[in-house]
Write a structure and sequence with these properties.
Structural class: mainly alpha
Mean pLDDT: 80
Strand content: 5-15%
Strand order of the largest sheet: 3-5-4
Radius of gyration: 36 Å
Low-confidence stretches: 16-27, 40-46
Distance between the termini: 146 Å
Length: 346
């Protein structure tokens, strides 16, 4: 380009200057602004936000485990101590031989029973039948035969029959020295006699023989210690944590205890010279009386049908216990006395 041409271009540019268009600058974003945007994102997508927090929590623990020997040794030490504590409190259930975890002392169980006893008497005040009532005398009579076979003869046994035809239930207060028996009158027609009542009372006494109340409290302690940190780590909501505890551990554990009490109670009633086959009839009648019973997996108790079937499986053992107790001779004499009383009009 010649000098004259260059001068003309410069003159044209000076005469009509064009603006230089630059790309827009990206505004400065502070940490507070980023945090606000993250919160807005989490509000708009709560599931994503919770997943992010859970991921951050797990990654943080993973990094701590990899980078900190003290953290690793601490976790392993706590795990070792926890395992030793657990195995130090494993004990064997009487009669059944099942091994279980228990940290509740008999003294604590007794204190809980005393409070429950006061509350129950207050709740059913004015509805407890007197000791001279026919139902109370029958319950006392059956109880007197069962106690020697229970191993709890030193307990302060006391019978309370509650006048309630709707309730088909009975229970014995926890604690081996309390001996407070509660029977609702509504279950007596289901028992259909003293043998059926012996199956009910034997089952309830068996809960005390096996210290099931203490075991349940121990189980709750163990579940909270083990499951709550895991639920926090994975960010599980409270309702999910409660459902896992309830349906995954508490209810299955309760059904196991109920079946164990059926087994111990069956042997107890047989040793006390009651007909163990009556327990099958009891649960068959209970099944007929039940209305809108939930499925077994949703219940704290086995189904009545399942209980009758299990008792049928255990009958040979109960028959052996009956034979070992020399009940045939005793019952023959008892039947003879009853017949003699009927003849003289007593």
């Amino acid at each position: 380009m010649s000098a004259a041409s260059a001068l003309r271009v410069r003159a044209a540019l000076r005469a009509s200057p064009s603006r230089l268009v630059l790309p827009p600058l990206r505004p400065f974003t502070s940490s507070a602004t980023k945090l606000q945007r993250r919160r807005e994102y989490q509000v708009g997508f709560p599931g994503r936000g919770q997943q992010y927090e859970r991921f951050q929590r797990i990654q943080g623990l993973k990094a701590l485990w990899q980078q900190s020997p003290a953290f690793r040794y601490g976790v392993m030490g706590l795990g070792g101590l926890g395992g030793a504590y657990y195995y130090a409190h494993i004990e064997e259930v009487e009669v059944s031989g099942r091994r279980r975890f228990n940290v509740i002392s008999p003294e604590a169980e007794e204190q809980m029973a005393a409070q429950m006893y006061r509350q129950t008497l207050q709740q059913y005040q004015g509805r407890v039948l007197p000791a001279w009532h026919a139902s109370s005398r029958m319950v006392q009579r059956v109880l007197d035969r069962l106690i020697p076979a229970s191993g709890l003869a030193d307990a302060k046994w006391e019978v309370h029959v509650i006048d309630d035809e709707e309730q088909k239930n009975a229970f014995v207060m926890p604690g081996t020295s309390r001996g407070k028996v509660f029977v609702f009158s509504g279950i007596l027609p289901i028992c259909a006699g003293e043998d059926g009542l012996a199956a009910v009372l034997g089952h309830e006494i068996a809960h005390n023989v096996a210290h099931h109340a203490a075991e349940r409290m121990s189980q709750m302690v163990l579940l909270v210690i083990c499951l709550y940190p895991l639920a926090y780590l994975i960010g599980a909501p409270d309702f999910l944590y409660q459902m896992v505890m309830d349906f995954g551990f508490v209810r299955p554990g309760s059904r196991k205890q109920e079946a164990e009490a059926d087994y111990i109670g069956l042997l107890m009633m047989a040793q006390s010279c009651y007909d163990p086959e009556a327990a099958i009839g009891l649960w068959q009648r209970m099944e007929q009386a039940e209305q809108n019973a939930p499925p077994q997996w949703m219940s704290t108790h086995p189904s009545s049908q399942n209980r009758a079937e299990k008792i049928r499986e255990w009958l040979p053992q109960a028959e052996d216990k009956l034979a070992q107790s020399d009940c045939r001779t005793a019952l023959t004499y008892s039947d003879g006395f009853k017949e003699a009383f009927r003849q003289v009009g007593w």
